[in-house]
Amino acid sequence: MKIICVGRNYADHAKELGNEIPDEPVIFMKPKSALLQSHTPFYYPEFTNELHYECELVLRVCKNGKYIQERHASNYYNGITVGIDFTARDIQDELKKKGLPWEKAKAFDNSAALGKFIDITPEFNPKNVNFCLYKNKELVQQGNSGQMIFSFDSIVEHISNYFSLNIGDLIFTGTPAGVGECVVGDELEGFIEEKKLLSLEVK
Ligand code: MG
Predict the structure, then answer these.
(1) Percentage of the chain surpassing pLDDT 90?
(2) Can you tell me the distance from the alpha carbon of 188 to that of 31, in angstroms, rounded to the nearest whole number?
(3) Ion ligand 1 — residues with CB < 5 Å
């Protein structure tokens, strides 16, 4: 199982971090050890002083494939939830400055928190999924899949040109604007529409 993540997939988020709007999906990965198991506490990592939350829609891959065409891509995922792509922003800024890979900032243990999945039904409209994140009961991030620069299906196509997709893989599809710091004691709650799917406390 692997976790594939898309960076800079919302224009307003790319801008808030001073990044250019990409002309093809920005892809990075997290290993299996990055997955925060449900009901496991999330501990503030000792190597950072600037931990950020990034709330994202996450797809669950249900079929093995490679070179998947966009028009067939929706057959390759069958569940959706919200997740948090935890980011050590101070480390990432240093690595970016030096032109180095991001893994230390993005792929550390438990850096991928996952909500409870909703099964995708035929009525599901992937172009209109509202999601949001509350920190300590205050709305901090709000997005709609229609704002994504690259749609779910074009992401699946693009990823599968480089990496085989396998059943159980997860795809984090990018974060909207509003990313910010979290500290010990913060409570994070993620929603799709009105359904609370994710809830965790930073310990
Ligand atoms: Mg992200």
Answers:
(1) 89
(2) 23
(3) 54, 85, 175
Question: Residue 158 has which token pair?
Answer: 């693009």
Q: Which residues pair with 10 in a beta bridge?
A: 148
Domain spanning 3-201 has what CATH number?
3.90.850.10
Nearest CA among 193, 194, 65, 174 for reference residue 125: 193
Residue 18 CA to ligand 1 center (angstroms) comes to 15
Q: Residue 5, exposed/middle/buried by CB under 10 A (0-12, 13-18, 19+)?
A: buried
Cα of 110 vs centre of ligand 1, distance in Å, is 14
The rounded Å distance from CA 149 to ligand 1 centre is 14
pLDDT score of 58: 98
Domain spans, the chain: 3-201
Q: DSSP labels for 124-171? A: --TT--EEEEEETTEEEEEEEGGGBSS-HHHHHHHHHHHS-B-TT-EE
- Cα 7 to averaged position of ligand 1 atoms, centre (Å): 5
Cα of 131 vs centre of ligand 1, distance in Å, is: 14
Q: Are 190 and 116 in contact (CB under 8 A)?
A: no
Rounded mean pLDDT, 128-149: 97
Give the CA angle between residues 25, 83, 123 to the nearest 5°.
Answer: 80
